[in-house]
Specification:
Length: 442
């Protein structure tokens, strides 16, 4: 960087994710920051300019004067290999970070005050941070944060969606898409359609939009094959129940093959391991993120997970909830977890769910950034009239009640639900169920 002006830009770019912390010696950090500052101001750079700036800042003599600069200039033969030199510096930095990390892990293990699983999870997280070339646990100055915020605002460039789109227009308008680092809870009573809604969102993110987002779907309730079948039926508009009975047509098979061809081209991953602990789930998500750069994680559903070592189920669910939120922040992606509501909703006259109906732990309310309560009024009318199901028009009505949104408004989003294909879709005011393309066989 001292030899040639052109080398500065390459070095700053190569060390962008680490900054001056990549250097071991404090005076090297100070000199790097000075050079980077001059470069960002588009100042001409050479040894004379840098020396004068050091003198102006009163740092020339404290850093070592002419001898210090001379030794640096003489230490490399050419500036043309600046990228290779930057990589050497970065590699040494990573090894130092790994040494610190292993010391912390050793001390934590020797304490013997925490369960082994918890220590293992913490150790894996630290190692993952090193492999991602990030320095964790440090405070960030407000001016740097403000700069990041303005960079994000400029990147938006008028775009309404800043997160991952869900496929539901009104919900996307309310949330601006599911944001990185957020824990989103989708809750409802059993058979209300939680899994269908989660899969529909995952389908849109991973399959329907152009160059779909890589994502990971943890299915703790259904097998991976069942998940794949539901996705294909939804994508192809094929009646899933009739397919299971073998009552499908040649047209259905053609549509399923077309849906399968699309799904085969997209990075959509399903993990159906039963009885996952929160630590195992986080470990699997880290691996998938490192290998496939996944942009969203789905969990179906939260209460089927385990967190050994807790005295009560409430504490266990709280640990799981905190773990999912930590995963979202750690990988900087949205984590969408389905959850079950308790029976309290059925004891009320209106049957409309509330956040307090979340089953087994109030910690979910605290940890979640967004809580969406799925409500279908027709669900509660089945069996009330001697087993007579409600009309299709009534049965298709559904609401997504955004009961909590940490960084945005709350409200209710109307959607349509088609039982035949286990699919939710956007609601158009004034439409009837019979007017939809699916009902007309299109």
């Amino acid at each position: 960087m001292l030899l040639e002006d052109a080398a500065v830009a390459e070095a700053v770019t190569a060390l962008e994710d680490t900054g001056s912390e990549v250097f071991f010696a404090p005076r090297h950090r100070q000199l790097y920051e000075l050079i980077r500052g001059l470069w960002s101001e588009n100042r001409p750079l050479d040894g004379v300019v840098i020396k004068d700036e050091l003198i102006r800042q009163g740092a020339f003599e404290s850093l070592g004067g002419y001898d210090f600069l001379g030794e640096l200039i003489d230490s490399v033969p050419t500036a043309q290999r600046v990228n290779e030199y930057a990589q050497i510096v970065k590699d040494k930095f990573l090894l130092r970070a790994l040494i610190r990390c292993t010391h912390q892990i050793t001390e934590r293990a020797l304490e013997e005050t925490s369960p082994a699983g918890e220590v293992l999870d913490e150790a894996e997280r630290h190692i993952f941070d090193v492999t991602q070339r990030r320095v964790t646990g440090g405070a960030v100055a407000l001016p740097d944060l403000v700069e990041q915020v303005f960079a994000q605002i400029q990147e938006m460039d008028g775009r309404a969606l800043t997160g991952v789109p869900t496929g539901f227009d009104e919900l996307d308008q309310m949330t601006c898409g599911f944001q990185p680092g957020e824990l989103i809870i989708v809750a409802g009573r059993p058979s209300m359609g939680k899994t269908a809604l989660g899969l529909n969102m995952a389908e849109h993110m991973g399959l329907n939009i152009r160059d779909g987002h890589p994502l990971l779907f943890f299915s703790l309730e259904m097998s991976a094959a069942q998940v794949a079948q539901r996705i294909l039926c939804s994508q192809a508009s094929v009646n899933a129940h009739k397919l299971r009975q073998g009552q499908h047509s040649d047209v259905d098979l053609r549509d399923l093959q077309r849906a399968a061809a699309l799904a085969g081209e997209r990075p959509f991953f399903v993990d159906d391991t039963a009885g996952l602990t929160i630590m195992e789930l986080r470990a699997r998500a880290r691996v998938a993120h490192r290998k496939h750069n996944i942009q969203a994680v789905f969990v179906d559903y939260l209460q089927l997970m385990h967190a050994p070592g807790n005295e009560s189920r409430q504490q266990e669910v709280a640990t799981i909830s905190r773990g999912l939120k930590a995963l979202a922040k750690e990988l900087r992606l949205p984590v969408i977890a389905m959850a079950q509501l308790n029976r309290g909703v059925e004891d009320r006259k209106t049957n409309r769910p509330r956040m307090s109906d979340l089953r087994e732990s109030g910690a979910i309310e605290q940890d979640a950034d967004v809580i969406i309560l799925l409500h279908r009024e027709a669900y509660y009318k089945v069996g009330m009239t001697e087993g007579t199901p409600p009309p299709e028009e009534e049965d298709s009505k559904a609401e997504l009640i955004v009961a909590k949104q940490r960084n945005g408004p709350v409200g209710t989003v109307k959607v349509r639900f088609d039982k035949r294909f286990a699919r939710f879709r956007n609601y158009t005011p004034g439409e009837r169920y019979e007017d939809t393309p699916e009902a007309q066989g299109e």
